[in-house]
Amino acid sequence: MTQALLFKDIDEPNLADIAVYERRGGYEQLRKVLSMSQDAVLSELDASGLRGRGGAGFPAGRKASFLPKGDMDKYLVCNADESEPGTFKDRELMQKCPHALIEGIVIAARAGGINRAFIYIRGEYEEQAQILDRAIAQAYDAGYLGERILGSDVSVSLVLHRGAGAYICGEETGLLDSLEGKRGNPRLKPPFPAIEGLYGGPTLINNVETLMTMPQILRMGGNKYAELGVSGSSGTKIVSVSGHVQRPGNYEIELGIPSREIIYGLAGGPPPGRSVKLWFPGGSSAPVLTAEDLDVPYDFDSLAKAGSMLGSGAIIVVDDSTPVLDVALKTARFYRHESCGKCTPCREGTNWTVKMLERIEAGEATPMDLDIMASVQEQIIGNCLCVLGDAMAMPIGSMIAKFRGEFEKHMQRAQLTGASA
Amino acid sequence: MSGPGPGFEYIQELQGRAIPRASDGSRTPGWDQPADLTKDPAEIPDPAVIHVAPALRDEIEAAMARYPDRRSAALPALKAAQRFHGWCSPQAILEAACVMRVTPGYLTAVATFYDMFELEPKGRHSVYVCTNISCSLRGADALYEEIAAAAGEDGEINVRHFECLGACDIAPMVSVDNVYYGPLGKGDAKRLVEDLRAGREPLPELRLALRRTAASELPAEHEQ
Ligand SMILES: Cc1cc2nc3c(=O)[nH]c(=O)nc-3n(C[C@H](O)[C@H](O)[C@H](O)COP(=O)(O)O)c2cc1C
Ligand code: SF4
Ligand code: FES
Q: Out of B137, B164, B171, whose CB is closest to A318?
């Protein structure tokens, strides 16, 4: 059921050390791309069908090809902000196998003709940042980073940048502002980062897992990699499973297996006597699914067809012991806290959604409030600068649509008892 | 349209009671007043006047040298200043601004955006308790209360709610001085606080870094 590419040697002791990584075949793909042309690297990535693992699922090869050619400074930024609730795959990957990330960064830099790379890691991951600091120093010493890598004419510098606690810095343009030393407010697009990104230069932004998959693609060959998974969702994916399951954790799966196999087969399902009530298939920003959707294949297109999304690959399972209102409140409060405040529908919409949910909890709401709340979600979607607003509106909207009866019952009960039931 | 619109009376009534207003009738006093042009514009602190500890200065200068634009060092500079001063005090911000050659206002704007900067004096130890979705499904809200109660009025232990820390596999979990521990069970809240007070590593056996991947712990029938 599991399929180990990124996780193949993951629990090998001291894999974070360069000697152990090299003994396991590490940095061979870096050597290979140094003698390949930029177009050859790009066509391997294209052939692999790899879609971004950070949330949006954009084809990685195509994104790298958007960078203009020419002799200016170009930038690669690895997005290691990992703040989407429920997601913890990049943490485990960086902690245990940091050199695969460095190798992937050089491969991506080669694909985009890039000479300066940064890793933006969330500030809370200080333990992982220290591991990366050491790995980067080792890679520089071994000549895998810096000027004229291994005597070739390829040069890539790499700087690790620590964030300081803000979900919005995972959004790619908020991340760029934060990396430039500003408040992490997202930017208006276009111009897209590929044309005008970090310090105004062409910039490629990729998630940790996306980059760490690139050495595997080069090793196997793009076409061979594309045979894994299903059409439209090639390859493997690290899925973070958490909440009401008996074996929470990261599992590497081949895309397209039934979701039930992940939730029950790998993660063990809810505790005995409990059943799945709802689940987020791709982090807290994904519309929720229910027990009826457990057989949906876990891949980008099938989840989209089921009305949700694969997102960051984080499954949060909620069993029948928990009221949907509690989940909605946690979700809405998170987005209210993390809204950067730049756009009115998001800043006000997240705040009012929390207030209305609190009214429901306190028994002060009328049935009309549910409709108002649903319409607030509709007015957020598509009307903001970035998709953080949508990221609250979609799951909350889906909870109201799918669990309306439960919200109504709660309101009646709370009104009768005059307190939160 | 002539005369006041349909909502007018309602608004008048609200103005009369619900919404607090400043003497000029504004809800946010001062927003409509021009900046005081008689005041000097904010200045970059003068290095001849501001004393900055050499170690702090070196650290900030080293950070600035790593980037094509020195302003990228704002976060590392604020972190260093916070570490030296115990919190992001006005003095800490002033010193960082002095070394970075920016105004203190610029760095204050940055510091107030991010959760990890402490804008008030705080204790030596920071304990972040994740109370986001996955952790709360596994008892994080009660855990927060237990830790807060165990720490009591102890000013040295700074217990904070935090959003998802990216470790929902060990829910409910805490980050103590940037090191992750979990899952916390019965009695662990008290032990955590006792360990910190005694100057020991808290809950050493629950440290995240010691764990293997969940995939490696699967029962045999799942092996490929
Ligand atoms: C509010 C918000 C938060 C995000 N957080 C992250 C994150 O923590 N990590 C990440 O890789 N991508 C995150 N993204 C997605 C990025 O904007 C971007 O699409 C991604 O890093 C691109 O990498 P990929 O193509 O390799 O997936 C976030 C997006 C939004 C709107
Ligand atoms: S949608 Fe929200 S988080 Fe995104 S830019 Fe607008 S206010 Fe900021
Ligand atoms: S919800 Fe607590 S670490 Fe993710």
A: B137
